[in-house]
Amino acid sequence: MREYETVIGLEVHVELATKTKIFCGCSTQFGALPNEHTCPVCTGMPGALPVLNKKVVEYAIAVGLATNCDITRKCKFDRKNYFYPDNPQNYQISQLYLPICRNGHIDIETEQGTKSIGIHEIHMEEDAGKLIHDEWDDISLVDYNRSGVPLIEIVSEPDMRSAQEVIAYLEKLRLTIQYLGASDCKLQEGSMRADVNLSVRPVGSSQYGTRTEMKNISSFKAITHAILGERARQIELLEEGKSVEQETRRWDENKESSYAMRSKEDAKDYRYFPDPDLSSLVISDSWIDEIRKQQPPLKEERMHRYIEEYKLPEYDADIITQSKNMADFFEETCRLFDSPKKVSNWLMTETMRLQKENELEADDIPFSPQNLASLIKLNEEGKINSTVAKQVFEKIFADDIDPVKYVEENDLATVEDEDEMSRVIMQVIEDNPKSVEDYRSGKKKAMGFLVGQTMKIMKGRANPAKVNEIVRSMLDK
């Protein structure tokens, strides 16, 4: 069989973090009751006129600057005409002819080194509504809360050659947008979705194969599976002497396969024309400069600062800055308790462990920096030992409790009273003569058992170093 190269381009839809929709004043809050956030504009009522949300433009420019795009100084909106139940106007306001951003790129890290992925354009548009299919009653319902939510669509060049490169690109894009504050990019809530355009060609060929498009895939796992599955399907067709049809396909994650939805449309099929209700948008150099000055530091800049300013190892800095929320949390905790490496350790070990166990995203930290800082301080000052600290942290993670009050109310403070420790240790030694005999015959590990029994009786509250010292002293007598 011939060897084939995969050619992939992405169209990434990102819901912007504005409080209101792109052309009306309805809320964009996620999770509202069906059709609660609607008005005549976003439900396509006759005569309703759109008014552009300025913040949408600013977010689009910010993303364009961060992805090295040229900003179109005079752009406009166009109507994309199509008929579908979740599209109340029977058209979508988008940008075809003069998108707001063009000719950009972002760099990703691959096994072969740094690779630049071209960005053909970024354009603004409005989202459609959402169809809810009721299989019990065999009906479909429409929720227009999402209709009119502002989107940017980021269209890459066909520069990616594997699922690994696609995921690296998406992760870099998501982190960039999150650090800008332009979107939370939560795939599970649909605020970031990707259409995968894929074709294959014989290795060494310069001509593109026939591409297919897989729509609205909303998890990295599903995107990876879709790419591998579609690549295999196209290669199988070509090896059998058949041709690949240009079409839009739907990826079914449960069945691990795709199926045809419709033939692939071109721009002419949508009968684009300039939107008559929206005037051209003129973007001045001073407006762009103002947005550029307000750009926050992105992941790479923060990572380098953590290494230089906080003296973190590169590995720690890289892990912490993989999430803007985690990075913000780290900085605030360090402000409250100035021990960056200790804070980093708690975030990278116990926090991430419990996030994984509770199936939470890195962005989901269910406790406050104040309570983590207080816990680390208690541990560092010796008021609680490491074993108790981990127990208290689990309560902080679950209920965000005040660790100082919790330790006091549950009598968890470290016992420093040597007389009390000595009484318990003496009892342990008397109750375990075999371990004492083992220790005195050269089996030094036996002391560990005696220390463990002491800590167990004292409910983990004793100072471990002091317990070790007293046990050894008594045994050596």
Q: What does this entry look like structurally?
A:
This protein is of the alpha+beta class. 40% of the residues lie in helices and 21% in strands. The chain contains 15 helices and 16 strands. A nine-stranded mixed β-sheet has the order 2-6-7-10-1-11-12-13-14. β6 (101-110) and β7 (113-126) form a beta hairpin. α7 packs across α9 (369-380) and α13 (433-440) packs antiparallel against α14 (446-457). It is elongated, with a radius of gyration of 30 Å.
- Rounded radius of gyration (Å): 30 Å
Gross geometry: elongated
Low-confidence stretches: none
**Terminal residue distance:** 79 Å
Portion of residues in beta strands equals 15-25%
How many strands in all? 16
In helices, the fraction of residues equals: 25-40%
Q: What's the rounded overall pLDDT mean?
A: 92
Number of helices: 15
Q: What does the main sheet amount to? A: 9 strands, mixed
What descriptive keywords fit this protein?
477 residues, single chain, alpha+beta, 40% helix, three-stranded antiparallel beta sheet, 15 helices, nine-stranded mixed beta sheet
Secondary-structure map with pairings?
Layout: E1 4-15, H1 54-66, E2 70-71, E3 74-75, E4 78-81, E5 91-94, E6 101-110, E7 113-126, E8 130-134, E9 139-143, E10 150-156, H2 163-180, E11 192-202, E12 212-217, H3 220-239, E13 247-252, E14 257-263, E15 273-274, E16 281-282, H4 285-293, H5 299-309, H6 314-320, H7 324-336, H8 340-357, H9 369-380, H10 386-399, H11 403-409, H12 418-431, H13 433-440, H14 446-457, H15 464-476
Parallel strand pairs: 12-13
Antiparallel strand pairs: 1-10, 1-11, 2-6, 3-16, 4-5, 4-15, 6-7, 7-10, 8-9, 11-12, 13-14
Helix pairs in contact: 2-3, 5-6, 6-8, 7-8, 7-9, 9-10, 12-14, 12-15, 13-14, 14-15
